[in-house]
Amino acid sequence: MNTAVIGLGIGLAHVAGYLKSNHSELKYVCDLQPERLTRLGGTFEQGSFKVLERLFTPEEKSTPWENLGIRATTDIEEILADDSVELVSLCTPDYTHYELALRCIEAGKHLLLEKPLSLEYEKAEEILRRAAEKGVRISVGYEFRINPAVLRLRELVESGELGDIQAFALYHYRTPFRRDKWNKWIQKKEYSGGLLIEETCHWFDLAEYVTGKRIESIYAVGSEKIHPDFDYEDIAFCQGRYSDGAVYQISHALSGFDFSLGMQLHGTDGSAWCGLKEEPYSSLDAGTSDYLGVVSSAGLNASPQEAEVRTYGWEATEPENIREYTVHTLDRLADDKEFLSGGEAGLRSLQVALAARKSLDQGASVEF
């Protein structure tokens, strides 16, 4: 099917997926920054989204778009008017998702939409409603659902190996958001929703996806005094209960110097621990590990030597996950099957994120 990518920041990982898939002919890329429209690697030299560079060959990075058979444009309408385009990846700033998603839907394009669906719940509902009316399918970019370490945690839950899950915890330590975004949109809560909506929505999604439970209450606290050029929280701590009484905790720090994403599962028969890195070298373990992901699990009262340990390579990193989730979306469209993360998943995670925002603003727990 003919495809297009609108937004060439994180959208470059979608480009990698479309170039890899046997179901895709990438016909258009669209962006407003001229340097992104010259060639695929147009902004890597500036450090922009350099983490995605490894997804492409040196030849791909140096080749002009037109030599790859791809039309580069600043005009979204050119894409929407082309009836041959069936699937569009919408990877533009968060505050544009509502308007641009509706325009793509009205043009009859299936959507791979980067999170969040919208910054407002009612507008996100409208996106899904209009898509259903037009027969358009929406896949939401929760790429961690395809991460093999995350899938291992989910497997441990579904198999019953850990017993009845009583607690889930997630701790994310990372560097600040980059300050080179278009018009600095990500630094403003009005345009990004703040940390809780812009990125913590990933972790609210995992808190339900991994455990198979639904969050029932949330209490959030945070600090916004570390980065004065961002008008929202640098640190957010959230906790609450699931509908069955189990508990969860999510810690999100946007003020680090390295990357670490850790998750824990605690059940009546055992527990599991997961750690994910971004690069082979991490200062957080003194560079002692060469893997990029690890999941350890064991029964109650076990020793370290008794734990089952599985390690993962590049396939457990976010750039590869985005590329593979793009391939997954194409595969599911071709086979007319459900997406691993569809519109309802996007709506649910937004609901939780907005409740966290309300809790942080009001200083009180919010119940669903």
Biggest sheet, strands in spatial order?
A: 14-13-12-11-7-10-9-8-15
SSE string: EHEHEHEHEHEHEHHHEEEEEEEHHE
As a whole number of angstroms, the C-alpha radius of gyration is: 20 Å
Helix content: 25-40%
Annotated CATH homologous superfamily of the largest domain: Dihydrodipicolinate Reductase, domain 2
Task: Name the structural class.
Answer: alpha/beta
Low-confidence stretches: none
| Overall CATH class of the largest domain | Alpha Beta
| Total count of helical runs of at least 4 residues | 11
| Overall residue-averaged pLDDT value | 96
CATH topology of the largest domain: Dihydrodipicolinate Reductase, domain 2
The percent range for strand residues is 15-25%
Number of domains: 2
The separation of the N and C termini measures 41 Å
**Apparent shape:** globular
- Please give the largest β-sheet: 9 strands, mixed
CATH architecture of the largest domain: 2-Layer Sandwich
Number of strands: 15
Task: Please describe what this structure looks like.
A nine-stranded mixed sheet has the order 14-13-12-11-7-10-9-8-15. The chain has helices at 11-20, 58-62, 76-80, 97-106, 121-134, 148-159, 189-192, 194-198, 200-209, 318-335, 343-362; strands spanning 2-6, 25-30, 71-73, 85-90, 110-113, 138-140, 165-173, 217-223, 235-241, 247-253, 260-267, 270-276, 293-299, 308-312, 366-367. The chain has two domains: 2-143, Rossmann fold (3-Layer(aba) Sandwich); 146-319 and 350-367, 2-Layer Sandwich (Dihydrodipicolinate Reductase, domain 2). Strand 2, helix 2 and strand 3 (71-73) form a beta-alpha-beta unit. The longest helix has 20 residues, at 343-362. Helix 4 (97-106) packs parallel to helix 5 and helix 9 (200-209) crosses helix 11. It has 368 residues and is α/β, with parallel strands linked by helices. It is globular.
